[in-house]
Amino acid sequence: MRFLICESMKKILPFLFVLLHTVTFSQEGAWVYFNDKPNAQTYLSNPLSMLSQRALDRRAAQNIAVDIQDVPIHQNYIDQITAVPGISVMAKSKWMNALHIRGTQSVINGLTTLSFVHHVDFANKTLNTNKNTNTAASGLFNKTLDVQANFPYGASAAQIQMLNGHLLHQQDFTGTGKIIAVMDAGFPGVDTTDPFLRLRTNNQIKGGYNFVNRNANFYTGFQHGTQVLSNMAAYVDNQLVGTAPDASYYLFVTEDINSESPLEESLWVEAAETADSLGVDVINSSLGYNLFTNAAYNHTYQDMDGNTGIFHYQHTQTDRLYWLRPDPCVYQFQELLRDLDTTNGLVVSPTSAGGPVSITLQSTYSNEQHQGSTLSLSFKLWPRN
User: What is the pLDDT of residue 125?
Assistant: First the structure.
């Protein structure tokens, strides 16, 4: 097909390109957090409606209580956010009671007027109010593996023996009865190649999901996941034996090899929640995020404090930490904490006496600019009588 472009169209086309470019990049990523989970009690009274029996058995064996974080996000909240013009829901997290969304800054900020929305948090930290913003260098880098040499290893004895994995195998620790979730960039070839034939024949692949493409085809993507799985599950007589050849596996694609964005963090959380609900025993994930394609989303060194970003701890007003000694003496309590660890230079600074005790733990470290910094953790403890 041939296209004819008149002189006037030649003048208009650059304008349209600029306009489309502006519209495309005005889309922002953000998390919208909700106030509550209205149907929580219904789920907590019927835990099998949100967790598998294996997940409940694992919780019981490890003394992990089922709580409100296991409750799914209220579907009516999801529906209302989805129905907002200009908003796209990209991922969700029941643990954080939040959705990962995309839209313009104004539309996303408008969600805070909804009664059930607690707050929104933009991936671009400069758009968040009342928060410290640090900038970092551009996050463009090669996400593929740089192979320097190929060696004809043959049998895999050396890699097993260097970690004493063969001693565990001799004691029958081969993964039998355990389920491992692998979260990575893709698993091409796992469904066809010989090193995974034993895995397929014995039905040790329990299932999986491609969170990046939102479909059930997890035998695609980048081969890093295949390589990671081979270290654990591959088995070829006299050639290759993984560290856990008798375990069963769920395969989850959460890493998008084509770009680096905060959405991948949300997909990781969503996969982890799925793995937990299925009752897996171990999550294997060799993924990490701090630099993104859009440098405005980068996590700085100062952000790596355990309280910033999608993985930070979400505390509530009802959280309580208790110490087991009813004696509220600050001095004795200070010595008790110091006895826990005397190697990290922690300074215990009680700020009140009697009743609840406010404690600040401080530790000095050298940051990436070789400057001395102090990391502080403050919390309150109540005596358990």
Answer: 86
CA distances from 338 to 160, 331, 343 (A): 40, 11, 10
What range defines the domain where residue 376 resides?
321-383
Indicate the number of domains in the chain: 3
CB 234 within 8 A of CB 205: no
Q: Are 319 and 286 in contact (CB under 8 A)?
A: no
What secondary structure letter does DSSP report for 51?
A: S
Sign for the CA dihedral angle at 74, 75, 81, 86 comes to: positive
Counting DSSP H helices and E strands in the chain, the numbers are 11, 14
Nearest-CA neighbor of 261 among 310, 191, 216, 225? Answer: 310
Contact indicator for 275, 207 with CB cutoff of 8 Å: no
Q: Is residue 46 part of a domain?
A: no
pTM: 0.68
Same domain as 168, residue 236: yes
Query: Coil, helix or strand for 2?
Result: coil
Average pLDDT of each block of 10 consecutive residues along the chain (385 residues)?
Answer: 38 42 67 94 95 94 91 96 96 94 95 95 84 50 47 63 78 89 97 95 97 96 95 87 92 94 93 95 89 87 67 42 38 43 45 54 56 59 50
User: Which are the contacts of 277, defined by CB distance < 8 A and separation ≥ 6?
Assistant: 50, 51, 52, 55, 70
CATH number at residue 97: 3.30.70.80
Rounded Cα gap, residues 266 and 259, in angstroms: 14
Residues counted in the chain: 385
Token pair listed for 212? 């990046």
- Please state whether beta strands 321-323 and 372-383 pair in parallel, antiparallel, or not at all (unpaired): parallel
Question: How many other CB atoms sit within 10 Å of the CB of residue 83?
Answer: 8
- Calculate the alpha carbon distances from 116 to 33, 66, 243 in Å: 9, 24, 47
- What the block records as the tokens of 120 is 């929104």
Phi-psi sector, 97: left (phi>0), alpha (psi -120 to 50), beta: left
CA nearest neighbour of 190 among 204, 177, 180, 176: 204
CA distances 213 to 195, 229, 285, 307, 362, Å, are: 26, 20, 19, 30, 44
